[in-house]
Amino acid sequence: MLWARNVVAMTKTSAGNLDKRYDVVIVGGGAAGLAAAVTLARARRAVLVIDSGAPRNAPAGHIHNYLGREGSAPADLLADGRADAIGYGAEVLAGTAVSAEREPHGFRILLDDGSAVLARRLLVTTGLVDELPDIPGLESRWGREVLHCPYCHGWEVREQRIGVLGTGPLAVHQALMWRQWCEDVTLFLRAELGAEDAESLAARGITVERGAVAGLALTVDDGGAERFDGVRLEDGTVVPVQAVVVASTMVARADVLTSLGLEPVELEMGGHVIGSAVPADAMGTTAVPGVWVAGNVTDLKSQLIIAAGAGLTAATAINADLSAEDTRLAVAAHRS
Ligand SMILES: Cc1cc2nc3c(=O)[nH]c(=O)nc-3n(C[C@H](O)[C@H](O)[C@H](O)COP(=O)(O)OP(=O)(O)OC[C@H]3O[C@@H](n4cnc5c(N)ncnc54)[C@H](O)[C@@H]3O)c2cc1C
């Protein structure tokens, strides 16, 4: 894999454990985790990032709305982030953390290969999983013609014919929002429309398609390449849109946190559940002392640059906490 080029090889003890105690172990090497790693390594902390290599935006060709990195490939941003972190002395390990447990001086983080690492503090930046509506074809075109976020993809499909799959409670809101980028918007909707919504859609020139959606219309050519042709209705009609918009359910990847007793909570928008996230304060502090979170695992709405900022913020809080502990230990040693 491309991203593996900056990964540091780690030595293991005969027991299969990494024999080093880190100031901070960061589980998750996306934008949030790597920004935190750079900040902590620059603060001269011993840092390990454990990353399983599946950032949320991996299916997308390019990133947008990240100042100074407009149009970069997602993998390139992270490769540069890893190089930055490693340049300041952080270590990056390709692997998956499965759980964590308290031990006298911090935490033991367990990996799926049976190894473990020790850390004084733990930062979890594992992101989220987008669960897509159960409609055939969505999965394979996700991040290409199947879109969720106008700020990530709206400009790229401006003035194209788009369809909004009205599977969720926010379908009307989505259709009206995407109308900013595209004049030709079709809302595929079975649910009844209130008078106000119907009037708003009509006023913005949005077509409402009442036929039941069977799936995406995909054609495989002789070379095996898949082509997206539009939305297929149950009666066989293909509505020829160039992209479709869906609402995913955004589920925090929280296994490591739940193992420490930190459960995700459901989040609502306009009275509807849109996903789950692990609660934390503005610095990323969780209810478990010594454990911080940043990025999508705690904030479903955060874009890349916000996730990176949250990683930096959590890193400063962690460093302050470690400094306080270093001082307490120094005073105790000094007195004795
Ligand atoms: C299709 C698509 C396109 C997008 N485009 C844009 C865009 O153009 N601009 C923008 O600002 N935002 C975009 N986003 C949103 C963007 O993906 C998120 O804002 C961003 O990924 C959040 O960063 P993060 O670090 O919190 O999580 P992630 O980027 O998802 O990183 C989490 C990392 O943790 C790792 N991980 C998870 N569990 C474990 C574990 N147990 N052990 C070890 N590692 C683990 C994962 O492999 C991953 O590398 C897009 C999202 C999607 C779905």
Tell me what you see in this structure.
This protein folds into two domains: 4-130 and 249-335, FAD/NAD(P)-binding domain; 133-245, 3-Layer(bba) Sandwich (FAD/NAD(P)-binding domain). The chain has 336 residues and is an alpha/beta fold. Helix 1 packs parallel to helix 2 (74-87) and helix 1 runs parallel beside helix 8. Strands 1, 2, 3, 4, 5, 6 and 19 form a seven-stranded mixed beta sheet that branches. A five-stranded parallel beta sheet has the order 8-15-9-10-11. A four-stranded mixed beta sheet has the order 7-16-18-17, with no helix packed on it. The N and C termini lie far apart (52 Å). Residues 1-17 have low confidence and may be disordered. The protein has helices at 31-42, 74-87, 138-141, 150-153, 171-178, 195-203, 255-258, 304-335, and strands at residues 21-27, 47-51, 91-94, 97-103, 106-111, 116-124, 128-131, 146-147, 162-165, 185-188, 207-209, 213-220, 226-233, 238-239, 243-245, 249-252, 265-269, 272-277, 291-293. The protein is built from eight helices and 19 strands. Helices cover 26% and strands 28% of the residues. The protein is elongated. The structure holds flavin-adenine dinucleotide (FAD). Flavin-adenine dinucleotide (FAD) is lined by residues 27-33, 50-57, 59-60, 63-66, 96-97, 125-127, 130, 143, 152, 253, 255-256, 295-296, 302-305, 307.
